Amino acid sequence: MGNAKSSNSKKKCKLPREDMDYLLEKTCFTEKQIKEWYKGYMKDCPEGSLTRSKFLDLYSEFFPDSKAKSFYEHVFRTFDEDNSGAIDFKEFLVAISITKSGEPEEKLALAFRLYDIDRNGTIEEHEMTEILKAIYSLVGREPQLESSPKERARSIFKKMDTNCDGVLTKDEFVQGCLKDETLFNMLTTNNCGISTNGKDSLSE
């Protein structure tokens, strides 16, 4: 029994070859780096999945202020691409890779998922307002010193909603950001709030 448990534990600690091949193709990391990330991930998530509560606990260490919770709730939803209620290692590392060194279109696709709260394939103005409120709260901005989240969202929609139907499609969002560097930086910079300098808890 003891040997069986030890064998199962070793299998869990080793990333399956098919997952390694997938991550080598989909991320910017080398095999050695992926193994290091996996080691840190399994240390924090020995069951092999990052639950919502664990995710929030980890990031509360970096941002103890409860005001950050709303933003990281949205980040968790964005990373949990299959909507399973947990982030597996592949989902986690692909998102990290995009945040770290993805192409502009990849970063915008990730940002689109962040703003598309109900996952219906479009962004509505109230969804963008909600995310901007969470970001303002996270970084400690005082809305009265600049445009409010609602005003900012309305301004963005005026620029991006090319067919004036009240929602942003993924294409409108991506093309609008690619044509406007200010919008691109505002809507993608640190949107997932992830440390990519190797000091993230899950990479140690």
UniProtKB/TrEMBL annotation:
Q: Which Pfam families match?
A: EF-hand_7, EF-hand_8
Q: Which gene encodes it?
A: LOC106151949
Family per UniProt?
Belongs to the recoverin family.
Check the record and name the CDD domains matching this protein.
Answer: EFh (cd00051)
Q: Which InterPro entries match?
A: EF-hand-dom_pair, EF_Hand_1_Ca_BS, EF_hand_dom, Recoverin
Q: Which SUPFAM superfamilies match?
A: EF-hand
* Residue ranges of every copy of the EF-hand domain listed in the record: 67-102, 103-138, 148-183
Query: Mind telling me what this protein is named?
Result: Neuronal calcium sensor 2
Residue ranges spanning the membrane: these are none
Q: Any idea which UniProt keywords this protein has?
A: Calcium, Metal-binding, Repeat
Q: Name one GO molecular function term.
A: calcium ion binding
> Could you name the domain of life of the organism this protein comes from?
Eukaryota
Is Calcium found in the keyword set?
A: yes
Against PANTHER family, the record matches this protein to: CALCIUM BINDING PROTEINS, NEURONAL CALCIUM SENSOR 2
